[in-house]
């Protein structure tokens, strides 16, 4: 029997890794480009569709002659990603079912990825008691999670400030996805040794954008044509320096607030992503969440009225501190 396993990761929330009516945004015109930039800070719910079907488990197929484990017998293991069956590209469980149903040969050729290396094997599917061909695998074909929008530039939307990673720490290959409005309903306070997290509800009737890129600098996409930008405010981009700043983030509902932080270290020359170390100093945020929690990934950092970066990671042993990325690494993705 085939099952589809969908694992809900309310962490995209990954690196921090730890997302209404109309959303109200804070912000401040980009002097470096002709395209206006708008500040984010509002939460978003992510549905990300992976490229390939992740093998989350192996199973026996019950047949008229007993049980069989086709994928296991062919060397497939948990953690592999099925990319092709024959010449059919695979992105989800339904693709696998269709490929098996339409196969005209006894054995099928399967292309899969293991530790980012592609391999090819042949599998003899088993026929279950219902007469359907099965490989004996459980697959996961998407991710869901909560994070924060950093900025909108023209028709592009930038979020998270870090990539969504696979089980082996590799940047997840994706085939697309959606970004929805999200209502934050609560949070778990961060403590030393344990990351906290935001809890929220996806507003699937309010599409913000479509995801097309998952890279070192974050998750990016195109803004939906029906997304209302009326309340967005323009902001310039700038460079950070050691000193006081703010993050814009949302810990209740869908409207961001600004909270005081301190930028305690900068490094834009020798690091692609960990450009800043920040420390939360705002008493309200410290009392509520303990500092940075999962789901705040992408929260914009503003200093001297300019957008300088985004929060990306929390220090597990000190939730008041975390890393940030320079906005200039995200701006043209």
Give a verbal description of the structure:
The protein has two domains: 3-50 and 150-330, Beta Barrel (Thrombin, subunit H), CATH 2.40.10; 60-135, PDZ domain (Pdz3 Domain). The longest helix is centred in the N-terminal third of the chain and has 10 residues, at 93-102. With 333 residues, the chain is mainly beta. It is elongated. The chain is built from four helices and 23 strands. It has helices spanning 70-73, 93-102, 283-289, 327-330; strands at residues 3-4, 37-39, 43-58, 61-63, 66-68, 81-85, 88-89, 108-114, 117-123, 126-127, 133-134, 137-153, 156-159, 174-188, 197-215, 218-223, 236-237, 243-249, 257-266, 276-280, 300-303, 306-315, 318-326. Strand 18 (243-249) and strand 19 (257-266) form a beta hairpin. The protein has a six-stranded antiparallel β-barrel with strand order 3-12-13-16-15-14. A six-stranded antiparallel barrel has the order 18-19-20-23-22-21.
């Amino acid at each position: 029997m085939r099952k589809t396993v969908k694992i809900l990761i309310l962490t995209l929330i990954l690196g921090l890794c730890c997302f209404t009516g109309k959303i109200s945004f804070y912000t401040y015109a980009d002097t470096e480009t002709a395209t206006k930039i708008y500040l984010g800070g509002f939460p978003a719910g992510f549905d990300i569709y992976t490229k390939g079907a992740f093998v989350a488990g192996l199973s026996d197929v019950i047949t008229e002659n007993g049980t069989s484990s086709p994928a296991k017998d062919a060397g497939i293991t948990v953690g592999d990603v099925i990319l092709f069956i024959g010449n059919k590209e695979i992105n989800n469980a339904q693709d696998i079912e269709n490929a098996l149903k339409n196969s005209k040969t006894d054995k099928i050729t399967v292309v899969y990825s293991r530790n980012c290396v592609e391999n090819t094997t042949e599998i003899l599917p088993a026929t279950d008691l219902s007469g359907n061909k099965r490989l004996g695998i459980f697959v996961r074909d998407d991710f869901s999670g909560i994070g924060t929008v950093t900025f909108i530039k023209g028709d592009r939307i930038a979020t998270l400030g870090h990539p969504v990673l696979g089980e082996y720490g590799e940047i997840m290959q994706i085939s697309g996805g959606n970004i929805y409005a999200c209502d934050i309903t609560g949070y778990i306070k961060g403590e030393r040794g344990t990351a906290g997290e935001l809890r929220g509800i996806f507003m699937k009737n309010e599409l913000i954008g479509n995801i097309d890129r998952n890279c070192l600098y974050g998750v990016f996409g195109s803004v939906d044509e029906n997304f209302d930008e009326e309340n967005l405010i323009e902001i310039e981009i700038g460079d950070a320096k050691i000193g006081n700043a703010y993050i814009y983030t949302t810990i209740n509902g869908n409207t961001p607030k600004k909270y005081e932080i301190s930028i305690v270290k900068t490094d834009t020359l020798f690091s692609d992503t960990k450009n800043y170390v920040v420390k939360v100093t705002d008493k309200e945020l410290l009392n509520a969440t303990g500092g940075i929690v999962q789901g705040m990934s992408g929260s914009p950092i503003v200093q001297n009225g300019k957008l300088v970066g985004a929060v990306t990671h929390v220090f597990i042993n000190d939730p008041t501190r975390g890393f940030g990325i320079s906005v200039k690494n995200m701006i043209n993705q």
